[in-house]
Design a protein that fits this description.
Blueprint (H helix, E strand, L loop, with lengths): L2 H18 L3 E3 L1 H9 L5 E4 L5 H13 L6 E3 L4 H7 L8 E4 L2 H10 L6
Helix pairs in contact: 1-4, 1-5
């Protein structure tokens, strides 16, 4: 199994656990809601999210004074939706738990806060 497939599998598992734990907001509106309430520790977009989605979520980050940056996942919208157990593709997710956010950041080799 390639390293990319291994990372994608682990990310899918982490996002699934975070959703079951109630620590994940799936979709654009839910993710922006976590920014408004300042509950988000990390926000990510699918690899194939549209330019419009990226632009709007980046604008929402700025508008709400968030210090978070938008991370890109190696998962497609379909893969992300499957990981969350939804029949629909999901382009944006926010994590509301520092532990899950840290674990995903480590898998993606992102700098820690």
């Amino acid at each position: 199994m390639s390293e990319q497939n291994l990372v994608c599998g682990r990310l899918s598992g982490l996002f699934g656990m975070a959703k079951r734990a109630g620590r994940l907001a799936a979709g654009f509106d839910a993710s922006v809601g976590t920014l408004v309430t300042r509950k988000a520790y990390a926000i990510f977009r699918a690899a194939d999210a549209s330019d419009k989605t990226v632009k709007e979520i980046s604008f929402a980050l700025q508008r709400h004074g968030s210090t978070l940056s938008l991370g890109e996942l190696p998962l497609t919208k379909r893969q992300l939706g499957d990981a969350l157990g939804t029949p629909k593709p999901v382009g944006v997710v926010a994590l509301t738990d520092k532990g899950f956010a840290t674990a995903v950041g480590k898998l993606l080799d992102l700098p820690a806060d």
